Amino acid sequence: MKNEQDDKNVISRRSFIKQASVISSFMIVPRFVLGGKGYTPPSDLITIGFIGTGKQAFGLKGSFQDTKEVKILAAADVYGSKLKQFASEVNQFYAAQASQSQYTGCTTYGDFRDLLARKDIDAVVIAVPDHWHSVIAILSARAGKDIYCEKPLSLTIKEGRAMVHESRKHKRVFQTGSMQRSWPEFRQAVELVRNGYIGDIKTIKVNVGGPPVPYNLQAEPIPADLNWDFWLGPNAPQVYNHNLAPSLTDDFWAHWRDYKEFGGGYVTDWGAHMFDIAQ
């Protein structure tokens, strides 16, 4: 004979289905609803590290943060003051997002290889002088990181092919920065040409400026927080001059592309944009 307690412990099939449906309806609610408008679950964020924290990196930082799809976990640079300022701005951004007084989640490294060794970083942003592009990109691919690398892709065809090979070998996503491709005026021009609105193209002329010259700047004292030997990297030793690695107080873009030891002049500077659009 059943007693009253037994009846309380029995869940009827109808009652179970009713309760299960309530639970199921809750479980399939989209995650952004639970976190509010614009919420991206941590599991859906791409964790990234910045390699190079100069002028270009500061602009890229804002662009990546605006997507609300990434989390900047680390940054690496050979120039201590730039690295410190970059990390400070990243931490301030996330502190403000969380309505906290401070945040210390952006770790800094003087050696980019320490950043690449982190397993919790999905991708890297490479914004260093051109002579470092190929080495850092290849090591990033081998470390299992997806890659965004500033233009130009490389300084030589051999470097470029090696970067492509390693990215494919390790099944990495690789994007090289080419901002003009997405600008509306260039997209319109491409559409006009491709659809024959201006007739058959016979000749294209691209004027981007002159080639690089041999390095000829005067030696200056090396800033205490700059690892100049590491900045030179694969290159032969050269004397330091602030035009190659400006400080935070300098209001100009670095001129290392002007010298053949470090860059390809205007051919790899604006040429990386203009030749791309023409093609």
Describe the model:
With 279 residues, this protein is α/β, with parallel strands linked by helices. The chain has a domain at 42-177: Rossmann fold. It has helices at residues 4-9, 13-27, 31-35, 55-66, 80-97, 112-116, 133-142, 157-169, 184-194, 228-232, 265-268, 271-278, and strands at residues 46-51, 70-76, 107-109, 123-126, 146-149, 174-176. It is globular and about 60 Å long.
Summarize the structure.
The chain has 279 residues and is of the alpha/beta class. The chain has a domain at 42-177: NAD(P)-binding Rossmann-like Domain (Rossmann fold, 3-Layer(aba) Sandwich), CATH 3.40.50.
> Biggest sheet: strands side by side, in what order?
3-2-1-4-5-6
CATH superfamily of the domain at 42-177: NAD(P)-binding Rossmann-like Domain
How would you characterize the largest beta sheet? 6 strands, parallel
The parts where pLDDT drops under 50 for at least 5 residues are: 22-29
The whole-angstrom Rg is 26 Å
Would you list the SSEs in sequence order as H and E?
HHHEHEHEHEHEHEHHHH
**Under the CATH scheme, which class of the domain at 42-177?**
Alpha Beta
* Class per helix and strand makeup: alpha/beta
Helix segment tally: 12
What is the total tally of β strands?
A: 6
| Mean pLDDT metric | 87
Strand content range: 5-15%
Distance linking N and C termini? 88 Å
What fold name stands as the CATH topology of the domain at 42-177?
A: Rossmann fold
The percent range for helix content is: 40-55%
Name the CATH architecture of the domain at 42-177.
Answer: 3-Layer(aba) Sandwich
Globally, the shape reads globular
